[in-house]
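Researcher: I'd like a candidate sequence for this fold, 587 residues long. If you have to choose between options at a position, lean toward the conservative one.
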């Protein structure tokens, strides 16, 4: 079965079970500064899981591009990818455990033909926050799963969410495929990561809301949130032993092997995985930088280059790999076709930049080496701090440093390097935690105001610069809005003042903000701006700001523009060719 066949089969199955097939969201969360990437199909659905009415009903399903960089260290093993597709179905206060488990089992065994004995299940065993999920345990038994294949685990294994600090969450039941490989020990279980058990689907029963004091409150509605890994499931359906063995990757491996002179399966997988994720980030107009998504993109490309060196690749290669990825992925993601050139150019630019950085790093390294040699006492080891500096500042791979030192019969103070590295990780983890601090549904007064200001800015830009202005990205924190849009050149000071004045005039007019739910076709007829990628017949929310702006959007917004007080542009800059960025505040 191909990836596309599985996707279609999944959607068709849930369509028959009366689920609306909703459009996938962007890989970069819109108007949500609390997460860098969409990591699950449920992200854009948080307000609806908390009780807001979804325009398309209570039963939803879709496919969703996801990126998880938390799994980056596992990449290279058999089952982990940083970019993957998630197939999901949701009940927003409609059906619950019984239907969810029945349908998952039916889909896997009847539609996909997976034998019952190849499945193992895990359920939540209970703790102080929530009881043992006996219901799920019994429901799986009713489906014919034998008791010894149902494992009970605590929160670390069988609880999902919240994705941020607060929000919807609950016990989950996970479905594993039992592979043919040998168990790692006689105690091998689904919770063990040896690869014998491959998690393919997770059904979360979201019946709690974690609140800021850490308590779990029952939600007003009981939801189901499921996610199935497309690549993993295709792998097992085709009898493959690894997610990297699916047809989607075959031509990519072929290309990579043509370019390399050394065989190293883990390095090959990392190169392919990282270049692939980079392609999909570039597809969203993210470009390599030193902050946020751009920084992750930069790390992915640079890590791929470093791993490629292990394969003996010392020339430019990212474009070749990206082209092979385009070819095998275009059927699943036709949107690639419009952006190929942009992706290739940006990827190569970063590759060249990194080559220059490495060169600079090499010079610094040689200087350090010189100093070390000159001052060397017999028992000295090369400073781990210096090595970490090289690694951190120049992206100089530690393996490379060790190799160079070995050639000179010098040992690295690895302990010192590891301590430095650990301290640094702690710092960046704290940074990452801060990113989550707003929670997924950060609907504070500040962000709501800035969200409405974004609509005013968007329309003002179209009026001042022209109708070619289109939103390319939006990110809101409690401090400022950031809006990326298409425009070929830098804005002049005069244009900036005009845009600012126009927005402030609308604020002074105290325009009412109103919302209606209409079909995409109606929204188009009304000249609403926004993303029109949704399916025919889909209903969308349209926000109107007086007579000034009409835009498709999920909200929320202020009720009158007067609440914004005043608007100020604080920065205007380039993001990439043809895309500008404005940062602005309200006071
Ligand atoms: N949110 C759950 C997960 O990511 C189910 O989709 O596993």
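Model: Candidate sequence:
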């Amino acid at each position: 079965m191909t990836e596309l066949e599985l996707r279609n089969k999944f959607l068709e199955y849930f369509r028959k079970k009366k689920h609306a097939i909703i459009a996938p969201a962007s890989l970069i969360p819109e108007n949500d500064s609390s997460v860098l990437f969409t990591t699950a199909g449920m992200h854009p659905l948080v307000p609806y899981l908390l009780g807001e009415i979804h325009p398309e009903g209570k039963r939803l399903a879709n496919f969703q591009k996801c990126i998880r960089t938390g799994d980056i260290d596992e990449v290279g093993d058999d089952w982990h990818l940083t970019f993957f597709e998630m197939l999901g179905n949701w009940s927003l206060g409609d059906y619950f455990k019984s239907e969810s488990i029945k349908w998952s089992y039916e889909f896997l065994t009847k539609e996909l033909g997976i034998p019952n004995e190849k499945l193992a299940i895990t359920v939540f065993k209970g703790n102080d926050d929530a009881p043992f999920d006996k219901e799920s345990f019994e429901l799986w038994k009713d489906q014919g799963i034998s008791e010894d294949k149902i494992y009970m685990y605590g929160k670390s294994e069988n609880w999902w969410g919240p994705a941020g600090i607060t929000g919807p969450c609950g016990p989950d039941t996970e479905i594993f495929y039992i592979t043919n490989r040998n168990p790692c020990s006689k105690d091998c279980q689904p919770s063990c990561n040896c690869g014998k058990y491959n998690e393919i689907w997770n059904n979360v029963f979201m019946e709690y809301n974690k609140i800021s004091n850490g308590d779990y409150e029952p939600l007003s509605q009981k939801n189901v949130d499921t996610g199935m890994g497309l690549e993993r499931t295709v792998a097992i359906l085709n009898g493959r032993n690894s997610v990297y063995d699916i047809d989607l990757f075959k031509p990519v491996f072929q290309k990579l092997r043509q370019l390399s002179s050394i065989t190293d399966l883990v390095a090959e997988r990392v190169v392919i995985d990282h270049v692939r994720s980079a392609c999909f980030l570039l597809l969203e107009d993210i470009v390599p930088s030193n902050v946020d998504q751009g920084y992750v993109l930069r790390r992915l490309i640079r890590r791929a280059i470093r791993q490629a060196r292990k394969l003996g690749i010392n020339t430019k290669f990212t474009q070749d790999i990206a082209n092979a990825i385009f070819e095998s992925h275009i059927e699943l993601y036709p949107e690639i076709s419009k952006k190929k050139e942009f992706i290739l150019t940006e990827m190569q630019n970063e590759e060249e930049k990194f080559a220059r950085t490495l060169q600079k790093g090499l010079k610094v390294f040689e200087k350090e080496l010189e100093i070390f040699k000159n001052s060397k006492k017999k028992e000295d080891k090369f400073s781990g701090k210096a090595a970490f500096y090289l690694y951190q500042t120049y992206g100089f791979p530690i393996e490379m440093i060790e190799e160079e030192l070995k050639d000179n019969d010098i040992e690295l103070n690895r302990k010192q390097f590891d301590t430095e590295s650990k301290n640094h990780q702690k710092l960046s983890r704290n940074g990452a935690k801060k990113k989550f601090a707003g929670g997924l549904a950060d609907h504070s007064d500040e962000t709501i105001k800035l969200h409405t200001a974004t609509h005013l800015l968007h329309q003002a830009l179209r009026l001042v610069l022209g109708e070619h202005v289109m939103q390319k990205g939006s990110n809101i924190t409690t401090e400022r809005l950031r809006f990326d849009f298409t425009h070929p050149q830098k804005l002049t000071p005069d244009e900036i003042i005009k845009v600012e004045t126009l927005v402030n005039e609308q604020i002074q007019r105290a325009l009412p903000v109103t919302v209606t739910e209409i079909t995409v076709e109606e929204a188009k007829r009304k000249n609403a701006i926004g993303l029109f990628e949704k399916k025919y017949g889909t209903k969308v929310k349209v926000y109107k700001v007086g007579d000034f702006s009409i835009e498709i959007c999920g909200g929320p917004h202020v009720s009158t523009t007067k609440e914004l007080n005043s608007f100020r542009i604080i920065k205007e800059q380039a993001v990439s060719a043809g895309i500008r960025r404005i940062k602005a505040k309200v006071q």
